Amino acid sequence: MEIRVEDLAARIGCDVQGDGAQRVSDVRPLDEAGPEHLSFAAGTRPMKRIAASAAGAVIVPRKAAAGLDAARTWLLSDDAQAAFIAAMLLFRPATSRGVSGISSGAYVSPSARIGRETNVFPGAYVGEGAIIGDHCDIGPGAVVGAGCRLGAFVTLHPNAVLYAGVQTGDRVIVHANAVIGADGFGYRFVDGRYEKIPHTGTVVLEDDVEIGACTTVDRGMVGATRIGAGTKLDNLVMIGHNCRLGRHNAFASQVGLAGSVTTGDYVRCAGQVGIADHLHMGRGSTLGAKAGVMDDIPEGGHYIGLPAVPEKDAFRQLVTVAKLPDLIQQVKSLTKQVAELEAALECAARTKAA
Amino acid sequence: MEIRVEDLAARIGCDVQGDGAQRVSDVRPLDEAGPEHLSFAAGTRPMKRIAASAAGAVIVPRKAAAGLDAARTWLLSDDAQAAFIAAMLLFRPATSRGVSGISSGAYVSPSARIGRETNVFPGAYVGEGAIIGDHCDIGPGAVVGAGCRLGAFVTLHPNAVLYAGVQTGDRVIVHANAVIGADGFGYRFVDGRYEKIPHTGTVVLEDDVEIGACTTVDRGMVGATRIGAGTKLDNLVMIGHNCRLGRHNAFASQVGLAGSVTTGDYVRCAGQVGIADHLHMGRGSTLGAKAGVMDDIPEGGHYIGLPAVPEKDAFRQLVTVAKLPDLIQQVKSLTKQVAELEAALECAARTKAA
Amino acid sequence: MEIRVEDLAARIGCDVQGDGAQRVSDVRPLDEAGPEHLSFAAGTRPMKRIAASAAGAVIVPRKAAAGLDAARTWLLSDDAQAAFIAAMLLFRPATSRGVSGISSGAYVSPSARIGRETNVFPGAYVGEGAIIGDHCDIGPGAVVGAGCRLGAFVTLHPNAVLYAGVQTGDRVIVHANAVIGADGFGYRFVDGRYEKIPHTGTVVLEDDVEIGACTTVDRGMVGATRIGAGTKLDNLVMIGHNCRLGRHNAFASQVGLAGSVTTGDYVRCAGQVGIADHLHMGRGSTLGAKAGVMDDIPEGGHYIGLPAVPEKDAFRQLVTVAKLPDLIQQVKSLTKQVAELEAALECAARTKAA
What we know:
Chain A has three domains: 3-91, Udp-n-acetylmuramoylalanyl-d-glutamate--2,6- Diaminopimelate Ligase, Chain: A, domain 1 (3-Layer(aba) Sandwich); 107-310, UDP N-Acetylglucosamine Acyltransferase, domain 1, CATH 2.160.10.10; 321-354. Chain A is 19% helix and 27% strand. The first copy, chain A, contains four helices and 39 strands. Chains A and B meet through strand 22 and helix 4 of A and helix 3 and helix 4 of B.
């Protein structure tokens, strides 16, 4: 598709500054774009990258309009990211999923029930008594354990594994090689050996949950490990047994929660955060990258560090540690000065006594 | 199953305090239990949660008996967790594994040997010359590479992968999407490029080892990467090439061992610990969450931090760093005081001289 | 194969010190070797382990020759590791890959094109329009999404997943259960919910890239997430959407890159490093284990710590923090001394006044 910038602007709700007759035929990141491409900048920070870009037209925030090169073509938007996504979907429309039904190369237990317009791809496995809703995609090699119950519009990407009894709501996405419902890491230490604690609980993924590639969510021992509606987990995340996450949480890659952690709604963790067992993260709290949480986090708290402390305390601590070499020098001088004072005073006293 | 609390107590070896005629029909976590449920508390810490629970009966440690609400029903046990597990298995008996044999949807090399009462599920792959013992489960999509040798009662969960030549003892469990025996991360840097070092070694998982979901254990370069009997690895753990773990180790999720690390028996690592290459963790040593180990750890040592230091040193260091802002303030005052003293002394000297 | 040490030495370019008539029949690590085995030590550090080894012969660096036990048999080499690898491949020659073609147990879309002498193993899936080069191995359960393009001599190990549209160069290796091309972790927060941002970009793995087991490389939003030629990623690594890695990078296990990180050539990360989004790692820079990178890293920089700082600053900081308890003690003494001085001076003044 090729389109004039002014026509495109009209369709995605932008104002044109520059040559509206310019034509673009696809979207590209700033540094890969040529004259025939549309690109975008979410903020004004990457002005250098914008200036260096060969893009034929760039969507920018309206507030950046003043500083723009008059010789080039711009699309101004109050929400540049949204406008760009709309443009991207014009050039690259989402292909509607085909309905191929149950592949002869898949294994589906005779006692399983598969919804309407649901695909089960070659190599997939659906166990005894599993119930899968309508409009689902069970990707190549994906495994739905016995007795699982999946809602509608659920996507299991290739080789994702749901152990027996896992439940999902609607519109859940599980990415490739993620594992939902493996046994929790629970043992009793008896006579010098670890005895496995049976895990008869399960995992519940509520509506609109998205689980990243190679992420693992362990089943509860008695009850359910639960991921609240709308919560998004990135790749390689670990959610231990018995955790219960609130709604609309977002955890970046490689975050790890030990057992029985609970979170309120809207909790966010940056990458590689670790949270010790049985703690609670308050609603709306945020954890900085690599934070190690050893205590409950209050509602709305912003914590970082190991052990995690409020952000402002952590920064203060960093500043004070940075001052340490100076401080050591200062104490050395003081020690010398005090010794001299003592000597002077003693000398004065002796003089006087004499 | 519904059962009177006093009958249940008799079967799991507890004493009843309260109404033994109360009936329960399943187990639940404290905060999901209703009047028809049995729950449990391992310690006395969660007394608030116990009080808030609607559970019909709760198993608690005998030593907590004194503080209990007389209006409710309690089961007292010297080992509340064990009693609860016994109760759980009464309500939810483990289903015995069926024996379905080798699925027509699996691929089994003609030269492989499969033991008695072993299942190979649809989509599984068993390579050339592999030998699998009796009573094993090779889950859907699981891969047993050429020449692997598996003991008896081994479970490979769905999509777990054993590369060629991997060996396991008896009663080994490998969870979904774990990878055993991939090439170690070893290269020679030659003429500006990384040249792959061939890895002709293997991995040995001894008896009773359990490997978590998406955990990776790399093969040795020459010899075997070895996981000692009874050792348990949680999900997303990395064990580098040539490591040799002792017996009855327990590593929580996201722990990473670089190459050639060795451990004694009974070593424990909390989540996200990292250990540099060629180090030794002494028998019975323990590493706190997120510890970064740069040196050998002595027998029985408790280490935390980055770099890891003995726990007591780490706490002292934390305390001293926390005191830093005060210390800076104190040094500022001292500096002022010393300046005043110097001035006073000089003034005194001058007065005297005058 | 059994061979006299002097014959072996001739074939791998070593000099013999000791009994050249000694025979060896295989290679083993130092502490697993017997009299019939050849072993090696890359440096002189493990002299104790060498002394304790029962190996019949050991390859050591020539520079270590002086200190060697005259009663034993040694092979001296300027590059002991290379010599040992050559010996290992004599005893354990690499088996040439068989060519079995497309298994009837695999699914290959009619519109896909598969090169000459390429194997597609049972349970593998090749989607619509995918193009796979010559001499490739698509392992059991591996998934090649629709429209992927693979070069020649590419190996996908079992259950590795390439999402639709992923491209690879030649000689690329993707280990088991790795996931290439899953959607990036990108959402718009709208009306209290996370809205998924469509990811229409892809992933490009250039020539000679090797991807570890359970590693994930997310697809770009618009353009390609790109892994430069010759770059090696260990297991359980996360590469976020839109990252572009240079050539010949080497990242150890459990490293995580947030979105849009770029690196120059020859960048190295030790285990568990985390890098925040949109940063640049300069050519030849090195990050120590567990470093947390919050800022661009200059060319050739060696950084460690959280937040990452130049190695020498980090060590200085460690040293100063270690001095803190002493410093606190010192300030306490100073405070006391100053108080005494003040008292003495006041007393002197009073005396004088009297």
